[in-house]
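User: Quick sanity check before I run a bigger batch. Here is a single chain. Can you write out its predicted 3D structure?
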Amino acid sequence: MKRVLLLSFALVFALLQQVYAQSTTVSGRVTDQSSGEGLPGVSVIVKGTTVGATTSADGSYLVNVPANNNTLVFRYIGYANQEVAIDGRSTINVTLALDQKQLQEVVITGYGSTVAKELTGSVATVGTEDLEDRPVVSVDQLLQGQVAGLQSVGASGQPGANQEIRIRGIGSINAGSDPLYVVDGVIINTGDVSRLSTTSNQLAGLNPNDIESVTVLKDAASTSIYGSRGANGVILITTKKGVAGKTKFNFSTEHGYTDLAKVPDAGKFLNAEQWLEITREGLVNAGESPADIDPYLESLGAGSEVDTDWRDLVTRRGTQSTYNLSASGGNEKTKFFVSAGLFNQEAPVIGSELRRISGTLNLNHTVNEKIDFFSTFNASNIDQNSPSNGGAFANPVGAIGFLLPTQNPYNADGTSNINRSGELGFSGNYNPLYLVDNDKRDLSNTKLLGSVGAGWNIAKGLRFSSQVGVDFINLEERMYWNPFHGDGRNYGGYGFDYYTRIFNWTATNLLNYRFTVPGVDRLTADVTVGYEAQESSEYRITSSANNFPPTTALTGTVVAASPVDAAATGNDFSFSSVLSRANISYADRYVLSGSFRRDGSSRFGSDNRYGNFWSVGASWNVDQEDFFQDVDVVSTLKLRSSYGVNGNAALSDNFGNYTWRPLYGYGINYNQQPGGAFTNIGNTALTWELNKPFNVGVDLGFLSDRLSLTADYYIRTTSDLLFNRPISRTTGFTTILENIGEMKNRGFEVSVTGYPIDGEFKWRTSFNIASNRNEITQLPEGEDIIDGSFILREGLDYRTFYVRQWAGVDPDTGDPMWWRDAEKTETTKVYGQAARVPYESASPKYFGGFNNTFSFKGFTLDALVVYNFGNYVRDSWEYYLIDGSYPLSNKYSKVLDRWQEPGDITDVPRYEYNLTNSSSSFSTRLLYSGDFIRLRNLQLGYDLPTQWVEKIKLSRANVYVRGTNLLTKVYDEDLPIDPEAGVNGIQNANVPISKAVTVGLNVSF
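Assistant: Done. Predicted structure follows.
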């Protein structure tokens, strides 16, 4: 027995020796090439076998390599695979680099993502490198010049102002034209929901530093999956998520100042001497005698030493500061991203500032290979002060021109002058310095945006996901007019308290199946079906009161003696939708896509509450064809096209949630008795405006895609436009809203990106240009509609100015002249006799951006130039600031070029006090070319050497200096305002666009 046991032990020992001799243990660590930190979850496979291991949280691994195997394969999603020969080594450390091609392959789309080769639509993406650490409040401002076909215009320089975004033109007249915004799968409410502030932007609550990417969907193949809300394009915002590995911290801070962008020479005002000189001349031309002129000029400040530069007093060098701290990390099971941010900005106009506090927490957890959970959460609070705009007497920007240079802003004791008596009293226009200190116009906007969801991998390629998202807005607005000076003087002070609460939720359930079609080699399909519901409820409280205590220390309406208004209202809408999409791809060459969505909306009548929306798209990856493999220069060639139908359910001032309903309202007084009456005629047949976009495009890549070009041509036809049709007054109403119009937008887009130099010195460049032509093709009864300064006429652009044509100045008399007829064959000196004609448009013919980044030995220089050509703009208050029709306001310096004697050749008429010849009335004289080129962003940064930063336990440190809107080139020397005047081309004495200069630091550890 002992002999048997000894023999058995000897046999086992021999076998163990044989196994040991046939296998080798290899260990090591896998790290990220850029950060040097360990990568968890990397697959380490012995090539040619199923033997392998997975790296731990710090990137370590250990694997037993069978005999006769000498190669390890390292694989990690997003990184280039690497094969390493063992060659008898027991320790092998590996560094993995990001696979740029693989990263570029994934494209975010509506309700999912796809690879670039299977994309049939027109989609553009802006990455985090173009979004973070920028001195602007909201992400929509950062899109200017970054995406071909996307027009981003800021009509106001107020921090937190609403930005106007148009994708492929203006698609509606009476409904909204803003795109749909989706943040991490949640459809959100955007735009300006304030009621007392001049402008605010809900997107300003989202910190751009927390955004990973912005994807812009432009054609039917990409937008029709959003059905009735895809007509104006869709902007998908994806926030940052955690990455498995050691926790990474990032801290950035930026400090600097804001100032006015260059004031055009034509927009400068007269000083006291010049204004008194022009006023004297105007009085003489008006026939006044010297005996009357001199005393009157003395009452206007002649002989005093007062020479007030109101622009200098009203503007300032504002401060700007930003702090951002984030952390991300986790393991193969749980990943997180958390951040906090503080943003402060003062505009270069007194009384205009914003402060934002924001925070983000995103979590992803994988239970097992079947189940995973995720959540996103963003919270922010904005405190914003905004001054009046337009013709309001309290508008500090208007005061620059409306107040006189001979008015003294201060009393002898240094206090603000609010004296109302005499010609120089502040009775009509107010002293803005006093109002900034004693009036209030501010808002506090709290925004909560988040979602929770789960995914279930039912089988290979089959996944179900469910998500519920919430977009909550809590807006408190306060306005107070003091009882001593300004708008509140005649009321003993006036106070307003407005409260707005919006609760918007979205629930989305999706089933996605990606599979290879049985029996057909290399034919794959990707099918998604889903159900989505959305409901948004708004609640408003409005209150106001006057007769305040005689002090500016008590500003709440609770202390006022006379309540004026108290009301509470509600407003809501809902959507219910089923959706589907399918992609079929053969051999990565031919791709066919289709989508269908059926929407039901509470915004439309019972006769047309549901609508069907769809798209078809196709693409051909020519570069995957066998016959193309010998073409070395062209690395990518893709042809694509799409067509479909989507809708426009966006709100506007003319179209609300209950427009379709016949409404009966109470609270109407008749002979001091309560009563009721019909308040809205309604239309139960009301339905969506339909958008039918066609797109054809090409994607080209040269020299292994070092140079890439994308070009698109599109036609989008919008039918069933909402218009008010006149009806008989016997109904109790004058119009009824119906679907009876049509318009078209057609244009092209070209984007070029490249890496001309990619060595120690690197140069990355991108350029985009877009051209859009808008045309109204159908109006009610085919008749023209006059819309203020514009005309709606079949065959013309929607924003065509309707105006009398300026013919110049009579050199013999200095009288203004206009063309009597559209053909300019005869002039007239009577404004009312001049023909009013369509003249140019506020819509640009060409716009885009040009970006260049240069890198060398740690230094990086980045410059973004944006441009805009082919549109016209106007200053809506210029008629006060030229000629003599309104003599008791300051004048643009161009008045110095006025006609003075017979024979003078000039475009500025004779200056006459209280002029009544309408020379300053709206005509082509007051329209200017809006062409401009602007240096939107210029940044010089330096990455400190690695050996420096490692000594203080940092992985990266970058210092930089940045300038925004540093230079602007305008092409109309007579333009008195900034050329960015909004999509309507009308500047309304808003806070001007500012420039900013900042110094920043960004460190990682």
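The first strand starts at residue 23 and ends at 32.

User: Great, the batch can go ahead then.
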